[in-house]
Every structure is written in structure tokens, then in C-alpha cells.
């Protein structure tokens, strides 16, 4: 019985690691493009807040006094 060494060692090619858009750390594959679940949540909540921050065009100057 000859013990053969398996040449099929999994070699992962080094992709260009994108830094986490939240903190700039190298991103983790499972949380891509973020480095962690925390940063992903942070970014998402920030994005949600941003979408809610749409200024409401309220014309306060058009208040007509109805007392004649
Ligand atoms: Zn991060």
C-alpha cells in the first residue's frame, strides 16, 4: 500500500481584496463586500436612513389665514 499524497490541495486564487466600505478593513468573503456582519448592518441602516432623509417640500409660506 503506497500512501499517495493528494495533489488536489485547494488553492484559492488571490482576488483583489476590496476594502470594507464601512471601515476600510479587508472584506471577508462571507460578508462581501464588507468585513463583517456588523459593517453590513451599519451600511444598510445608514442607507435606509439616507433614503428617509428626503427633504419634504412643504410650503409653509402658503398658509392662508381664513379670518376675514
Ligand atoms: Zn468593516
Structural commentary:
By secondary structure, the protein is an all-alpha fold. The protein has a domain at 16-51: Erythroid Transcription Factor GATA-1, subunit A (Erythroid Transcription Factor GATA-1, Chain A, 2-Layer Sandwich). Helix content is 24%, strand content 0%. It is built from one helix and no strands. The longest helix has 16 residues, at 37-52. The mean pLDDT is 79. Zinc ion (ZN) binds next to loops.
Keywords:
single chain; 68 residues; mainly alpha; Erythroid Transcription Factor GATA-1, Chain A; 1 helix; rod-shaped; binds zinc ion; zinc; DNA topoisomerase type II (double strand cut, ATP-hydrolyzing) inhibitor activity; Znf_NHR/GATA; DNA_gyrase_inhibitor_YacG
Radius of gyration using CA atoms only:
27 Å
- Give helix and strand order, one letter per element, not per position: H
Discrete helix count: 1
CATH H-tier superfamily of the domain at 16-51: Erythroid Transcription Factor GATA-1, subunit A
Main pleated-sheet profile: none
Q: Termini, distance in Å? A: 108 Å
Query: Which percent range describes the beta-strand content?
Result: under 5%
Q: Roughly how much helix do the residues carry, as a percent range?
A: 10-25%
